[in-house]
Design goal:
With 76 residues, the chain is an alpha+beta fold. The protein has a single domain (3-75), classed as 2-Layer Sandwich (Alpha-Beta Plaits). Helix content is 13%, strand content 29%. The chain is built from two helices and four strands, in the order E-H-E-E-H-E. The strands form two sheets. It has a two-stranded antiparallel ribbon. A two-stranded antiparallel ribbon has the order 2-3. The chain binds iron/sulfur cluster (2 copies). The site of one iron/sulfur cluster has 13 residues, from helix 1.
Length: 76
């Protein structure tokens, strides 16, 4: 059976750094960027451990602002 990997695209300008997606991720993939901020001054989310993403979409479901788009890729 093919394995599934995921990747997350963040709308960094919409993110308000609420951390909900970071806490919802079962694989510890996401983190708030400790240095950079967006135009509104929020530390936005990025993929700290992109290889660990399983594409479960938990992060996208909890984001109150719809900032996250999850893509699933099959790898053999
Ligand atoms: S899709 Fe799942 S594994 Fe990937 S970052 Fe979101 S919550 Fe974590
Ligand atoms: S849940 Fe949405 S707004 Fe909150 S930190 Fe994650 S991406 Fe940003």
């Amino acid at each position: 059976m093919a394995k599934v990997k995921g990747t997350v695209v963040v709308n960094t300008e919409r993110c308000k750094g609420c951390n909900l997606c970071v806490e919802a991720c079962p694989s510890d993939v996401l983190e708030l960027n400790p240095r950079e901020v967006n135009n509104k001054g929020y530390h936005f989310v990025y993929m700290k451990n992109p290889d660990d993403c399983i594409g479960c979409a938990n992060c996208g479901m909890v984001c109150p602002d719809g900032c996250l788009t999850i893509y699933k890729v099959k790898i053999s």
